Amino acid sequence: MSEENHFGSEPYYSLKSAAQKIFEVIAQRLDVQTTYITMKGENSMTVLSSLNKQEEIVPEGFTIDYEESHCRLIINDQDHILRTNNLMEDKLTREMEASALLQVKGYLGVTLKDLKGNVFGTLCVMDKEEKNFNQEDIEFLQTIASVLSHMIELDQTHYNMGLMNAPIIPITDGVSVLPIQGIVDAGRAEKLMGDVLRYGKEQDIDYFVLDLSGLVVRDQFFSEMLPKLIHALQVMGIDTMLTGITPEIAQKEIEANVLTQTKPKTVPNLQTALSTIGFKLVESH
């Protein structure tokens, strides 16, 4: 998988809503009891949405270790499919934990991707009875997966648009905090750069504290845009301080060594940052 799904299952409203309507069509067309979509995490697969026509075999929210899941076989397969008429007897699946948990026979699954080609998860169907799925069935499920890819893109776009306008928080004259959250792609990075530099000039900022605790690291932003932003602020005479350094960010810095030239000061939290500048946070009673 090229990218992990960093913002959890809740923002995928469009995908889940569309899936529930499409599941009925899939179940009728393929004559199966259960249809579901999974989402791939770092080490696990989670059922994002499901339809169980009779007994509940796969509940929404069900999570299983990636290595023990049928989804791993689907995603790693050259054709990105898994087809068997009996999970309990197939040599690839009969010893797997997921097969023991599900206790089903007929199974067909295809990889679900976003529009950029990144693996999102899987779209699967299964039944208590043996099912001989043919090539036409596979192509049908792959077509449905392609349709759902647009829902994934829609949800991801809505999520990132919500983070597009990074809130610059003024602390006092000459001091502001910029929380950088979520995934920063090229478009958002360019806007972020323009907004921050313009704000720094208009508000006569002396210190900018960049809070990275909510940043989802992507190589392009971390290795290119963040150093450029810091350097541009320094050229304008604005001191930059980094806080909220996560273990992931620290590891990326060790690997890429991208902040060496700009050498921004790093502190563990906002209170320390303000104290370093010369301010104190005072609790109100």
Structure notes:
The chain has 285 residues and is of the alpha/beta class. The protein has 2 domains: 149 residues, Beta-Lactamase; 109 residues, STAS domain (Transcription Regulator spoIIAA, 2-Layer Sandwich), CATH 3.30.750.24. It contains 8 helices and 13 strands. Strands 3-2-1-6-5-4 form a 6-stranded antiparallel sheet, sandwiched between helices. Strands 7-8-10-12-13 form a 5-stranded mixed sheet. Helix 1 runs antiparallel to helix 4 and helix 5 runs parallel beside helix 6. The radius of gyration is 24 Å and the shape is elongated. The C terminus is likely disordered.
Give a short synopsis of this structure.
By secondary structure, the protein is of the alpha/beta class.
Main attributes of the structure:
single chain, 285 residues, alpha/beta, Beta-Lactamase, Transcription Regulator spoIIAA, 6-stranded antiparallel beta sheet, disordered C terminus, STAS_dom_sf, STAS domain-containing protein, STAS_dom, GAF-like_dom_sf
N-to-C series of helices and strands: HEEEHEHEEHEEEHEEHEHEH
CATH topology title of the largest domain:
Beta-Lactamase
Please identify the structural class as seen in this structure: alpha/beta
Radius of gyration, whole Å: 24 Å
Q: How many strand units? A: 13
Q: Which stretches of 5+ consecutive residues score pLDDT under 50?
A: 281-285
> How many angstroms does the end-to-end distance come to?
50 Å
Largest sheet: 6 strands, antiparallel
Strand order of the largest sheet: 3-2-1-6-5-4
Organism: Halobacillus faecis
Domain STAS: 165-277
Pfam families: GAF_2 (PF13185), STAS (PF01740)
InterPro entries: Bact_StressResp_Reg, GAF, GAF-like_dom_sf, STAS_dom, STAS_dom_sf
